[in-house]
Design brief:
It is a single chain. This protein is of the alpha+beta class. Among the domains are: 64-176, Beta-Lactamase; 183-271, Beta-Lactamase; 498-648, Heat Shock Protein 90 (2-Layer Sandwich), CATH 3.30.565.10. Helices cover 57% and strands 17% of the residues. It contains 15 helices and 18 strands. It has helices at 6-63, 65-72, 79-92, 118-124, 133-141, 178-187, 211-214, 223-229, 266-269, 271-317, 331-460, 466-493, 505-522, 541-561, 616-627, and strands at 96-102, 108-113, 145-146, 150-151, 158-166, 169-176, 194-198, 204-207, 235-241, 244-253, 258-265, 501-503, 526-531, 537-539, 568-576, 579-586, 631-637, 640-648. Strands 1, 2, 3, 4, 5 and 6 form a 6-stranded antiparallel beta sheet that branches. Strand 1 (96-102) and strand 2 (108-113) form a beta hairpin.
Length: 660
């Protein structure tokens, strides 16, 4: 730790104590005053925006009164009455730029345009407005519809239109938005206040000065305005216009689906707050300086007393004897001076005692030398013991190497044993397959025998001709090809190709089922397949087929042993989240709870030794977990047993096809 003069430390403490209120005040201003001021400014803008929005809403509602009056007389058969009502409204309402009466077909039947000759008005009669979007919306909804802002073709200025259904007709009014800017100018409470009317696309349609409207600006790219146009909640915050940062809020005008923007420059909005904070800062600074000056005087006096006390202490450290120790009106200082004086007296006393102790230690050092000699002798004995221990450790390491070789040898034997067990399982599966081939061939052989006998009978009856012989030949060859296909499937199932391949598991399942089909049909067992398009797996298809064969044989044996009335085996497959799941279910009554955890153990079987080796499910588990990095489980299902195989899909390529 770095030592510092007492005077410097006291000055720092005094500065810290005097500056702490200033820091707390600044923290209070940032955590409470600023948020409170922002909330007050936002509340002011919200109330002002709501007030102006209500006035603008009333402005538009008043503007539509003329359309209501014209709509009231549209039932007259005489269009002159309607034309007179339109002209009267144009004279009374200065902001009304044009008015049209449009019939159900979209044709203009009566029209009035301010500051336009009767000849030009006549050109507008009969104009087809059937494709006008505002006309179509009013006809379709049967309610009042307002348009977006647009440049008027009759007046040349920025306008807005309202369409009001009147029976089968539609009254359309066009208003000059320049009057709306004058209206906003009259409602502006201050010169620094900015009030804008914005349509639903962000286009400025009116402002109190008219300058923004004249520029035809679109403010949709300003984040605050874009957020409000795409949201239904109230939005307030900061925005930048003409390089000036402003704060404001937007509120909706329900009549025309537009928004009022009320904003002020940030410096004007926060002017009163900054003034108050400045006065507070000056006051705190003056108070802090005065307190710091008083603290400096008190600090200097206290440090002088401690310096005098330090001089007396240094005299004691040099071996002298100090007298007239300084005292003060501070109780703690006097206690420290008294303690130092007592310590000085104690040091002189201890110096005398130290001389006596040195003599005693010299005597003790001589005794320590003798003990060191004895310790060296003991160390020699320990070195010898460590050498013997190292010899024993070397012997133990040699024993560990021998033990490791034995473990590797046993592992090799276990792998060889597993290989023999798998080979034994494949031989057992081969026997099962030969039995299935016998079932597969029995029917084709019977068919061949019947065809040969029929051929002989027809020959004796002289019924044979060339076409009949060709028919017999085709039938025989079809049967023989079916038998050859069975042999090919059997050969592919047991071929010794151990190379890794990409294969479709659905194809393997269907091929395995074909080998068992005759055996299952002979036993009266129904087999149902529901195979979805699968992803390709990486591995040995023969191993995968052997797993399916073992599970199907196991299900068949259970169904036969328990003489189930309607035996059924169901095989389904499904892929989800990169894992292929194959489920094989039977209705053979299930597995007893006390043996369900043993079905995958080697040589475990519930059959007679002559009927099974107990290796099929064990080999299946070894193949799925070792070769396909998957899992195989067994569980009870309603009325039977469910085997579930889950294999991770490693090739992200879907195979499209239809399962049999």
């Amino acid at each position: 730790m770095v030592a510092r003069p007492l005077r410097h430390m006291l000055v720092r403490f005094a500065a810290l104590i005097t500056l702490l209120p200033l820091g707390l005040t600044a923290l209070l201003g940032s955590l409470w005053l600023l948020p409170e001021a922002e909330q007050e400014i936002a509340s002011y803008h919200r109330q002002l925006a709501l007030t102006i929005a209500g006035q603008v809403d009333s402005y538009f509602k008043a503007s539509r009164v003329s359309a209501v009056s014209v709509a009231a007389v549209t039932g007259q058969t005489d269009l002159a009455v309607v034309q007179k009502a339109i002209a009267t409204n144009l004279q009374l309402l200065k902001r009304l730029r044009a008015m049209y009466l449009v019939d159900a077909t979209g044709r203009v039947r009566a029209v009035g345009v301010s500051n336009m000759s009767k000849a030009l008005q006549g050109d507008l009669l009969g104009l087809d407005l059937s494709r006008n979007e505002l006309f179509q919306k009013a006809r379709a909804s049967g309610t009042e519809q307002w348009s977006d802002s647009f440049l008027s073709v009759v007046g040349g200025g920025l306008s807005v239109a309202v369409a009001m259904p009147a029976g089968s007709n539609v009254v359309i009014e066009e208003f000059d938005l320049a009057h709306l800017s004058e209206f906003l100018h009259q409602t502006t409470p201050g010169s620094e206040q900015l009030i804008m009317l914005i349509d639903r696309h962000g286009q400025v349609v009116a402002d109190q000065a008219g300058t923004w409207t004249a520029q035809q600006l679109n403010l949709n790219n300003i984040p605050l305005i874009h957020e409000r146009l795409t949201s239904t909640k109230e939005v307030r915050g900061s925005l930048v216009l003409n390089g000036i940062e402003m704060v404001g809020s937007l509120h909706k005008i329900n009549t025309v689906d537009w928004w009022i923007l009320v904003a002020r420059p940030r410096h004007a909005a926060y002017r009163q707050l900054w003034t108050s904070l400045g006065i507070m800062a000056v006051t705190l600074a003056a108070t802090t300086l005065a307190a710091f000056g008083v603290a400096m005087v008190l600090t200097r006096r206290m440090s002088q007393r401690f310096e005098s006390l330090a001089e007396h202490a240094q005299l004691v450290t040099r071996g002298g004897e100090a007298t007239d120790w300084p005292h003060s009106t501070i109780v703690e200082f006097n206690a420290l001076a008294d303690s130092l004086q007592q310590m000085s007296e104690s040091l002189h006393e201890r110096a005398r005692l130290l001389e006596d102790e040195i003599a005693e230690r010299q005597h003790a050092q001589e005794e320590l030398h003798e003990k060191a000699l004895l310790l060296e002798q003991e160390i020699g004995e320990r070195v010898l013991a460590e050498h013997n221990l190292q010899v024993k450790q070397t012997q133990l390491e040699a024993l560990n190497l021998t033990l490791e070789a034995r473990v590797l040898e046993e592992l090799a034997k276990n792998r060889e044993k597993d290989a023999l067990m798998i080979q034994q399982g494949r031989l057992a599966a081969m026997g099962e397959m030969l039995s299935n081939i016998a079932h597969q061939w029995r029917q084709p052989l019977n068919e061949l025998g019947i065809m040969i006998q029929t051929l002989r009978l027809e020959y004796d009856d002289k019924l044979l001709d060339g076409s009949r012989i060709d028919e017999f030949s085709d039938d025989c060859m079809r049967t023989i090809l079916h038998m050859s296909k069975t042999i090919d499937t059997f050969r592919d199932f047991f071929k010794k190709d151990r190379s890794l391949q990409q294969f479709d598991p659905s194809v393997c399942i269907v091929a395995t089922v074909e080998l068992l089909k005759a055996s299952l049909q002979a036993a009266g067992i129904s087999l149902r397949l529901d195979l979805q398009p699968e992803c390709l797996l990486q591995g040995q298809p023969n191993d995968f087929s052997q797993v399916i064969l073992n599970i199907l044989n196991n299900a068949r044996d259970i169904l036969l042993a328990r003489a189930v009335a309607t035996p059924v085996i169901t095989v389904t497959s499904q892929q989800a989240q990169g894992v292929l799941v194959i489920v094989v279910e039977d209705n053979g009554g299930g597995i007893a709870a006390d043996i369900v955890d043993k079905v995958f153990d080697p040589y475990f079987t519930t059959k007679h030794k002559a009927q099974g080796t107990g290796l099929g499910l064990y080999i299946s588990k070894k193949i799925i977990e070792g070769n396909f990095n998957g899992t195989i489980t067994v569980e009870h299902c309603p009325g039977g047993t469910r085997f579930r195989i889950a294999v991770p899909v490693r090739i992200a390529e879907t195979v499209h096809g239809e399962s049999d």
